[in-house]
Amino acid sequence: MSLTRREVLVALAAAGAGLATGCTGDDPDSAPATEPTTAPPASPSTAPASPAPAAPGDPTRLRVDGAIAEDLTVPWGLAFLRDGSALVTERDTARVVRVGGGRTTTVGEVPGVDTDSGEGGLMGIVVLPGEDAVIAAFTSPDDNRIVRMAYDGRRLGRPKVLLDGIPRAFNHNGGRLVIGPDGTLYASTGDAGQGERSQDVDSPAGKVLRMTLDGKAAEGNPFGNRVWSYGHRNIEGLAFDSAGRLWAAEFGDQETDELNLIERGANYGWPQTEGPTDAKGITGPKAWWSTDDASPAGVGIAYGTAYVAALRGQCVWAVPLSGTDAGRPRRRLAGEDLGRIRNAVPAPDGSLWVTTSNTDGRGDPRAGDDRILRVTVG
């Protein structure tokens, strides 16, 4: 089954609050709100079967409704199915679980995953159109790799390698996957602790890669290989907006975390630059934070707003988007005592599914951790 671009995309969100600025601390409820005009965009693997929900009054305001799933181990990737349930990867167990309808069931344990590899392990996942297969990213004992597995609705098949040889390390393994409106697969990779790799367009490390669903370099890539953009330190969040623009959440080093608009062939500066820059030939971020306030992992986009999950910041940053610009980030859910937050994914019913990451060795686990929470927008 295939979807057209029209089916994948919804109307362009009319939203915005000026040019991006850095932001720290909580912002008051009286802060200006963006007025959205669209519901969450559908993607080839998340298209809802029912009509899209109405847009909320203020998409930067979030409220926790309750837990959808509990007692998970470092939930990392999350991909929705058409029935509203989701496949979720556990980084440190190599399990894929299906969450929905009040149940959590294991659909497979991916062989070959190094579950004692620091920030690596079983990471991103996407469901292919037709829902008969998934693509996942994981750390093996030798490298980071991207694999495809059959899925019959109950169990996963054995992995078939689409791309291997991506450098691995204890830190900076990237691992986020997303299928674009053009039907190609986009994957983020980290620099694996060696920043110079990010500037080498012949290396897959420190990049956003673009490839076909069978792992080959996609037509139209700027360097004749799988590289789409370069100069990245460690991207763990990728999401398309309703107009087909790709945004990425990126870990900084000592000073600045970033939200970037990813463009074909662009250089995002690492390791020469970090945060806002006027350096020639470098594309700077659209929004940014101090590393104490963010450590951004997953990012989801709906209602003209990017929802950036913050691990160290222990919140979700709601960033209004207006075309190619980003507005002032608003800190949300910081008062809920959720701990580290790894992902914020728009669900088919108009909510967000927000995942905690307190069992990852850097957090303070609460009762029921790790959890997936349903969060109401507006």
Descriptive overview:
- The chain has 378 residues and is an all-beta fold.
- The protein has one helix at residues 5-8, and strands at residues 62-69, 75-80, 86-90, 95-100, 103-109, 122-127, 133-139, 144-150, 160-166, 177-179, 185-188, 207-211, 227-230, 235-240, 246-250, 256-262, 287-290, 296-302, 305-310, 315-322, 325-326, 330-332, 341-346, 352-356, 372-377.
- Strands 18, 19, 20, 21 and 22 form a 5-stranded antiparallel beta sheet that branches. A 4-stranded antiparallel beta sheet has the order 1-25-24-23, with no helix packed on it.
- A hairpin with a 5-residue loop joins strand 2 and strand 3 (86-90).
Task: List its traits.
mainly beta; 378 residues; single chain; 1 helix
Short description:
This protein has one helix at residues 5-8; strands at residues 62-69, 75-80, 86-90, 95-100, 103-109, 122-127, 133-139, 144-150, 160-166, 177-179, 185-188, 207-211, 227-230, 235-240, 246-250, 256-262, 287-290, 296-302, 305-310, 315-322, 325-326, 330-332, 341-346, 352-356, 372-377. With 378 residues, the protein is mostly beta strands.
